[in-house]
RNA-binding protein pno1 (Pseudodiaptomus poplesia), 250 residues
Amino acid sequence: MLSESKMTDEDQRLGQVEQIEKRKTRKRKMDVDEPEPGTTESQPAEDGAENLEVLKPAFPPIKKEKLADGTEIRKVPVPQHRYAPLKENWMKIFEPIVEHLKLQIRFNLKSRNVEIRTCKDTVDVQNLQKGADFVRAFILGFDVDDALALIRLDDLFVDSFEVQDVKTLKGDHLARAIGRVAGKGGRTKYTIENVTKTRIVLADTKVHILGSFQNIHIARRAICNLILGSPPSKVYGTLRTVAARSSERF
């Protein structure tokens, strides 16, 4: 009985060794079949990639004469509560767009949009986007003088978000969060604006920030902390340290 058990154990070991050797031979065959990197078989693919790079089309920037009418149009929708401010400040909006950017502008009463388009006198087509950003910033609630900075400077942006994007609040909790951001008499909002060199508009539950990319990031973090419930004194302290660091970098 002992000899038979020894034989069966040896047979099992031999079977396991044979299986391992078969696996090793399979792996060796696979390694031999696969071409090594840098061999002649991989060269045709590389040559094809080089040919593709050479054959890439290089389209020149399109000229305004080749467009349908040689004109491009931007439309900025105007909500009802901004009709009166738009009417009062129309000449302040009209002059920089027509005289400096050499664009045409009108207010379409049927579609209720401010329409801006290029004309023969337009020097640069990029001015059309600048003019549209300027009008859009005014429609969002910024002053005309603040929105004019979008025309004069290239590194300014407008960022918008809602209070409920930061934290889902309802009723009195939402009102208190907006009150924390504004402060007594708008004091907190003015402090954030002056420290971060931005302009902030609180329109109901929406917050709009005008400024450079880095300054918008600092102001947005301060506003988010206020919405989440941080006291203004703590937010002021972090604002001062962050603003000092950013001024040291530049």
Observations:
- Confidence is low (pLDDT under 50) at residues 38-46.
- The chain has two domains: 64-152, 157-249.
